[in-house]
Amino acid sequence: MTSPNTLPIPRLRPETATHEHGWRVESRHPTSEGVVLYVRCADCGSRRVDLQAHPHTPPVGVSAELGGAGH
Ligand SMILES: [Zn+2]
């Protein structure tokens, strides 16, 4: 009799995937399509590029989150 509970199931849940990033703007660059924001999470060091098309709309992430803490 086999039990599925005995199978080793790899759990790939890094801490960076569970916490809510606290993005902080490091630099901003006005472009013809809006303001490109380079943001970094102060907690885990992940980086992301956001694009804020209009001053009154929230920025939208245009790049994947880039882990900066090292793997
Ligand atoms: Zn983070």
UniProtKB/TrEMBL annotation:
Bias kind Basic and acidic residues: ranges: 12-29
Organism of derivation: Microbacterium aurugineum
Region (Disordered), start-end ranges: 1-29, 52-71
Protein name: Uncharacterized protein
